[in-house]
Amino acid sequence: MIETKIIRIDPFNINRDLLKEASLIIQKGGLVAFPTETVYGLGADVFNTEALKRIFAVKRRPMDNPLIIHICRKEDVYEVAEEVPKEATKLIEEMWPGPLTLILRKSKEIPYEATGGLETVAVRMPAHPVALEFICLSDTFIAAPSANISGRPSPTKAEHVIRDFYGIIEAIIDSGETLFGIESTILNVLTDPPTLLRPGAYPVELIMEILRREISIPPFAKGFGEADIALAPGTKYRHYAPNTPLILIESSNYSMFNLDKIVNEIFSRVINDLKSNKRVAVIASRETINKYRNLLENYENVIIIDIGSRSNLYEIAKRIFDTFRRLDDLGVDIAYIEGFEERGIGLSIMNRIRKAATQKIRI
Ligand code: TXA
Ligand code: MG
Q: Does the beta carbon of 232 lie inside 6 Å of ligand 1?
């Protein structure tokens, strides 16, 4: 056990002296968890290979799964990457700072420990005042994966980071809940057309609008199957998962008719589980929650969780990881979740749910 400093920073009124303490820890080779607009990151100085190795060790992350390099000025991309293709420049101009990570050819200065041995590098400029100030004060670039133990749901609150890393890393900057609650969108701009490696907080529709062309969306980006490991190293590992078995019931669309079918499917499965003395959780949308409440009101051992409204998928995205973590705290034996429309951030939500699910059922 080491001493973990909890440094509270109000994003609306940043205390630079306090934040400076965190950047000093980075400069001395320590690990600092920090907030971004997506999820909390577990940061280290990208040029300190010992610190990078420790990130992999404490996260129990395979060494071939590379990190994202965080910068605080757009022009720093030229230090991290060897070259910046035209389309990348366009995206950087329009979308940074913001939740878009670009895969570029790495510069010689970036150590292979950060890129999992690859010649490419993932880079982003986060749209969070504390993250930006923290990176700039550290006077380096910050390599950071999400601040969770490998395979666990990503952290959207400092409490989540404390749960996974208290006594293990030097400091945690606590700036409250993150804005999006789902990670950045990862786009490989080295392919033609560019390839979506991970849908995230930035909708792919907007990327296509800016580039004025389609981008490639492989099945693994939707959360199905596995990718070519060399191209998308992160996709070969099970992700975001609660320990509780999670069953996804999805459909081709979410009309009232299909939602009723989903509710009935989940209801009959829950009844079966209850018969075999299991404790069950149902993760419901605001549009369906009352139906479960009515159907299940006479049963004990079933917990119904409100994940938010289908009319505001950002709300659902923001709650998804916290809800996954809550499942484990509730001590249920099995959980069900409904699918969501794969539009905008809905694609990212479905990617996370499919990767977390132990079973996917389409009705
Ligand atoms: O929103 C985010 O992106 C958060 C915050 C902290 O910035 N970070 C994050 O990092 O989600 P992480 O490590 O959980 O996810 C990074 C993903 C991994 O799936 C990794 O495989 C992929 O980025 N990646 C990193 N470098 C890559 C590369 N050179 N080529 C392809 N994929 C890469
Ligand atoms: Mg992660």
A: yes
Is residue 348 lining ligand 1, measured as CB closer than 6 Å? no
Q: What is the pLDDT of residues 194-247, one digit of tens each?
A: 999 999 999 999 999 999 999 999 999 999 876 555 556 666 555 677 889 999
| Cα atoms found within 13 Å of the Cα of residue 67, Cβ hemisphere only | 33
Look up tokens 């992160």; give the residue.
234
Tell me which residue of 267, 300, 308, 302 sits closest to 284, measured CA to CA: 308
pLDDT value for 236: 58
Place of tokens 């133990």: 149
For 152-173, b/e burial (b = at least 16 CB within 10 A) is bbbbbbbebbbebbeebbbbbb
- The residue whose CA has the least distance to atom 25 of ligand 1 is 66
Q: How far, in Å, CA of 216 to CA of 31, rounded?
A: 35
Helix 129-138 vs helix 16-27: crossing angle, to nearest 10: 50
Which stretches in the chain have pLDDT values below 50? Answer: none
The response to whether residue 145 sits with its C-beta less than 6 Å from ligand 1 reads yes
Ligand 1 atom, smallest distance to 184 CA: 1
Tell me, what's the pLDDT at 224?
87
For 179-213, letters b (16+ CB in 10 Å) and e give bbbbbbbbbbbbeeebbbbbbbbbbbebbbeebee
pLDDT (tens digit per residue) in 119-142: 999 999 999 999 999 999 999 999
Whether the link from the prior residue into 203 is cis, omega within 30° of 0, is no
Ligand nearest to the CA of 196: 1
